[in-house]
Design goal:
Length: 339
């Protein structure tokens, strides 16, 4: 596999100084473990450690190595570990705010082209949670596709009702209902996987991410799966680290651990794109700084009252926008306190 087939594109090539051509081995991070990582040049996978300088910079900037990163390294074919000297600027970076009051961010994966946002149609079906995942993906500049799993567990009338609800609630994003048990819809997913493009699966535990990878790859023993709790439909984590794998289509897939807690959001761009039909009305509000809550002349509230926007979607938009504003303010206070 060439570097280009492994996802190296013009974005990264433009970051190479012509005078340093051939100085480094270029590789991609395929898995991250405690204290070291697996990297690959497309042909060989090797364990690697970052230089002390790079580790210090990462601690200072909270910019740690993650799956999907492209790196410059030396000693790729010598010794126990290759040595990572620097990280290429990321084309995209999927991240979330860590759970809790302290403002910090967890980098999930990098350089992803398309994210499959996986959500269940059965127990655990929750459009608010789906919108939260979607806002994180859009904020990262990644193209989303929504995969609704476990369609085989619903009668046709309820299945159609929920799919219509998702497509109405979240317009302009592809929505595919699938079943890992019957295989229904998996051919459509397979057709979306383009060679040299990088994809990821994101969603809560128990929605079928690992089973989906097993189905798409066709090797059920590559990842083991754990049962879903019968009581609440929540899953037990079967993926304990993030890993980049090659599919038979030539596409690349990153599997991420389920995230039960999303923390507070600080993703204004992602929220605005998720609720674009709502934010499009903001310019029509009477006041420029309209809070869209009990405000005279608010075009958004008027659209809700007229039935043009569902109240549930409006309420989730307000909740997430307020959450994002609070997180951004906390970040600003922390920044000025540390100055």
């Amino acid at each position: 596999m060439t570097l280009e087939e492994f996802g190296f594109c013009e974005w990264f090539q433009n970051q190479i100084d012509p005078s340093e051509e051939g100085k480094w081995t270029l590789a991609r991070v395929t898995a991250v473990h405690k204290g070291w990582a697996d990297i690959s040049d497309g042909e060989t996978t090797r364990p690697a450690r970052s230089t002390g300088r790079l580790r210090r910079e990462a601690r200072h900037t909270n910019n740690y190595l993650t799956v999907g990163d492209w790196v410059r390294c030396k000693k790729f074919d010598k010794g126990d570990f290759a040595v990572i000297h620097s990280i290429f600027d990321r084309k995209t970076a999927l991240k979330r705010k860590s759970v809790g009051r302290v403002v910090s961010y967890q980098l999930i994966a990098a350089n992803i082209d398309t994210a499959f946002v996986v959500h269940t149609l059965d127990k655990g079906y929750n459009l608010r949670k789906l919108e939260r995942y979607l806002s994180i993906v859009l904020d990262s500049g990644i193209d989303p596709v929504i995969l609704m799993t476990k369609k085989d567990l619903l009668p046709d009338d309820l299945l159609n009702e929920r799919i219509d609800e998702v497509r109405t609630r979240i317009p302009n994003v592809p929505v595919l209902p699938i079943s890992n048990i019957t295989g229904d819809g998996l051919d459509e997913v397979h057709d979306l996987l383009e060679p040299s493009k990088t994809y990821c699966l994101i969603g809560a535990s128990g929605v079928g991410k690992t089973s989906l990878i097993n189905s798409v790859i066709g090797e059920e023993d590559l990842y083991f799966t754990l049962p879903v709790r019968e009581k609440d439909g929540k899953g037990i984590h079967s993926t304990t680290w993030r890993e980049l794998i090659e599919l038979d289509t030539g596409a690349l897939m990153i599997d991420t651990p389920g995230m039960r807690e999303l923390g507070h959001l600080d993703s204004t761009t992602g929220i605005d794109e998720t609720f674009d039909e709502i934010t499009a009305l903001e310019d029509q509000c009477r006041f420029r700084d309209c809070a869209h809550v009990n405000t005279k002349g608010c075009a958004i509230e008027a659209a809700v009252e007229a039935g043009e926007i569902s109240r549930e979607r409006y309420e989730n938009f307000i909740h997430m926008r307020q959450e994002s504003d609070a997180a951004a303010e906390a970040h600003r206070r922390k920044h000025w306190k540390n100055k």
